[in-house]
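Bug #77: duplicate submission created two jobs. Keeping one. Sequence:
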Amino acid sequence: MLFGEHAVVYNRPCLVTAVSARIKVTIERTAGGFKISAPQVKDVRFVEETVRLFQKKFKIGNGLAIQTKGDFSCQYGFGSSSAVTVATLKGLSQLFEIPLSKKEIFDLGYQVTLTVQGLGSGFDIAAATYGGILYFVTGGKKIEPLKVESLPLVVGYSGKKADTPSIVKNLKLKMKNEKRQIKIKKIFNKIAETVELAREKIENGNWPEVGVLMNQNQKLLQELGVNTPKLDKMCQAAVKSGAWGAKLSGAGGGDCMITLVTNDKRKAVEEAIKAVGGKVIRVKTCAEGVRDESNG
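Kept job's structure:
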């Protein structure tokens, strides 16, 4: 997630990039039963629900063996649940020769997310499906690719796995209080304004201004109460060592932060993140979305 955390759950836009870490899903028909081997996925219910939904919609049989391989662990908060959901849908569509458009894959994947988690915006399903950088509005009301080839991004992992559904639900509970709800909605609106400005600056390659907007978005997330001292230290260390800007990425409460840097400052910024206990995760941005690799 680049901009728009939490606000995107409530009908505001966000900006998200697909990263180069990938999950591969192999699906085969079997004589009977349903077997899953998915060590990269924290919650296999995403695979189970994807298959159940596909079976219900397209009336396919139950004899399937599903196996996953991945470039990364689910601990990093890189959307492994969404990636495996989308890849499973693509695999099933290929196996049973039922063509699905990207929007159809998104719609089914989003349905899976809502069934398993009970809430969510679907931005991660969209990123896994479409790839690249997307301007996204809750539930896929808008999914618009940005014409950007890469971002000068550094990703730092805090060392703590975030419980995204719990954090999102906790914020929803806070909004039951009328005074808090008014305050939170104002923050969401400011975040949405930041997203719109960031979209323009990213498309123009104006990275210093994007960095300024990152810092603004981070302050708004601090006001929401989803930041952590560790993430804040990592962001501050990055900016002090020469980054254009930095913010947490995702629900908060752990997982990752991101920062924009020039090539000549990249090493210094990475060292600064490590110095405060963070781990630098090397990924490329604007990666390709889901694809069929059955023919090599």
